Amino acid sequence: MRQRSKLSMRTARHSYAVSLFACLVFMLLWSVAVAAVSSPESELLRPADTSSPRDTLTSFIADANKYIEDFRDGQVGEKSYLAFRRASQALDYSTTADGDSWFIRSLRIALLQEILARIELPAENEVPGDRAVTGGNIDQWKIPNTTITIVKIVDSTGADQYLFSAETVQELDSLYRQVKHLPYRPGTVAGLYEEMIKVDSQLQNQEQLLRDLLKPADTSSPRATLEGFLENVNRSYALVTEANTALEATPPTMTPEQAQELEHSAKQFLQRATDTFDLSLIPETLRQALSVDHSLKLKEIFDRMLLPPLDAIPTQQMIDSLRKEAQISAQQPAPPFRWKMPNTKIEIVEIQEGDRQGQFLFSAGTVRRVGDIYNKVKDLPYRKPYFGGTEQEYLSPELSPDFYTNYISASGYLIPQLHLRGRLIEVLPNWVKAKIGKQMLWQWIGLLFSVLVAIYVIFAAIRYVKLAADNFKSPGIDWLRLMAAALLLIFFALLDQFVEEALSLSGHLRVIVAMLSSALIFLVAAWLTFVFCRTIAETIVSTSRMHTMSSESSLLRISASVVGSLIAVGIIINGFKTLGADLVPLLAGLGIGGLAVALAAQSSIANFISGLILLSNKPVRVGDFCRYGEDPSTDWLRIGTIEEINWISTRIRGIDRTVTTIPNAEFANMHIVNLTRRDQRLMRTTLQLRYETTPEQMRYILVKLRELLLGHPMVSAEPARVRMTGFSAYSKNVEIYGYLKCTEQDEFLAIQEDLLMRIEDIITEAGSGFAFPSQTAYLARDKGLDDERRNEAETQVDHLRSTNKLPFPEFEEEEREQIENTLDYPPEGSPHHKSRK
Q1: With contact defined as beta carbons under 8 Å apart, do 624 and 547 qualify?
Q2: pLDDT tens digit string along 42-100?
Q3: Are residues 117 and 10 in the same domain?
Q4: The CA-based dihedral angle spanning residues 762, 768, 772, 773, taken in that order and rounded to the nearest 10 degrees
Q5: Has residue 502 been placed in a domain?
Q6: Residue 495 sits in which domain range?
Q7: How does pLDDT run across 352-371, given as a tens digit for each residue?
Q8: What is the DSSP letter of 253?
Q9: Same domain, 389 and 517
């Protein structure tokens, strides 16, 4: 009943405050519209009287009181709006966070009015007026016994204005907390400030709600950073405490939906608190998890120490003034500003680079040391509320006792009852919740289970892929490996999420586990990338027309491996970076190590580069028949067929069926003759005819041999030739030179055989014969040459001579065309014979 009554009162206050602000905003807008229509232009645009400190003070009090009285009487109108606007113009909002917001300006006006209504003000004649400032010697005036200051400001038109200083406006909340216990002076108007802030902060009005959820933390100065951090953690703690208390009541006084809204707002406030940290030394993969952890630890530290006086913490105006003085004296730019909390290592520094340049954040070193500092002070008692009275100057000096302990005990949940795992943890027996090495027993059990499952999955994946390799061929086995790598990556990502969210480890163990799991994920992702590139290459090779062992397929495989390796290395290096590794010494080590490896593996690198040259330049391809090297004594051993060109070496199967492996660097420097790429085969032979062959017989033989080359369909007409080349010691020499229309060795031998047989027939028909370099003594009578055949040959030559058809040095073109391609090949009697008749 008490909780319900509390909620009812809170709802009533909320309704009243929302109505109050709604009326305020509505009346302001309505007043603007009415003023624009009904007021004289000079009255609407008339600014506040700020020509002297006296005018500023008196006009502000009059305008603020006028507006408050009209608002309380329900008489807000045109004049009320003008009074509110003039009161607003008397304040300098330049250093006030969100000073451009109507809501913030309303609060500041209300605060200043509350303060001025409670303190003793000097007589009007004691405040400098127009006559006093005429000489221009009064730059500022302070209300006696206060820090409230009115300063001279030169506006854009060059005119002098006296406004409540930016520092005063920024400090109004602190000043108000110092005087709010004082009664109002007689004759003053009671203020509205307390009524404006009675409602809970997250429900004050729509503008405040949006600013709480969307606007980043104010880090414009060390004071703003510290106060913003304390305020956001305390507001989060208040919401969490309220929700947990309401849910634990019997019966609960809050619905789960309402508690979820409070948890969401509490998370937003904690996020804004972590926005005051420089997380540059925290690995990216750990920032989200550790930032909240460090925020709660830092708040626990602050709750155990005496906060410094608020006016001792620098504001932006104080920093600008110090820098201006330092720059004038030193004649050089001032260094980054740093402020350290007294007697501690907790430091707020100005960020000099990056997206947060110019902001004041808890230093990276402070964030890194938070855990150690917390361990030193965690056993100390909390400070007493408002100890020494200095905390009253802070906007949010409250404590948040056991906030971090409860957060860790609930495995990272702010409101554990809203989550299934949180409710399960609460019902676990106490012995399972016992702490061992800063972790609960059930967390150790869950971690051990996760490690065992990870090891089993890795070995199972390796084993099944090896077994499947016997039943699959490329690219099937490659796709199987790719699928296994993808499943492993998904599994480890889910396992990492389980360990992070379900176990919610703390301290150094959390950092170690998170870094190991992230490293494992990066390694699997790198392997997946490499396997993917290789799989794509193997798939293209198998589905295209290229031979699986061709040079193009080898080059594609090597290119895929190189690309995959580079991407994998990039993933691993980026992983090291996100894990917080310093890449400068790593890359330097890689450079030195790479130099050492390059020197040690010089030949391997040379072989690799030579292999790329062979595959790209293609002097020979896989399947080509070639001759390599320049040793004439072993030419028959240096002929073979290219079987494979890989990263390191080239394999050649010789004509004796042996396999020779040659390093690519050596093979690329050899004299390589590609026999497969011949478009024709050369036939070149010399006939050695006996000296008894007469010139006419020789002419007959030359004519017939030329007819043979021209008429044979497997002999290229150009540049086929038959020439008598000279007289040797025992013969008349005739050279036959021509290209056969074939490339394969077997076909070449068959055509050459046919030509040689026909040549022998021609020699026999001419009655000549082949000479032999012998000295045989013939004892029998030599029958000599066949006179009949000789006469016939000579007769035919005489006929050719008489008819001017003797083909020396060449046949006539017409006769040449008639002779070309007239013989049968294969010859008659062959199963492949085709007559040309």
Answers
A1: no
A2: 444 567 788 889 989 999 999 888 888 888 887 777 888 888 888 988 999 888 877 77
A3: yes
A4: -120
A5: yes
A6: 439-600
A7: 888 888 899 999 899 989 98
A8: S
A9: no
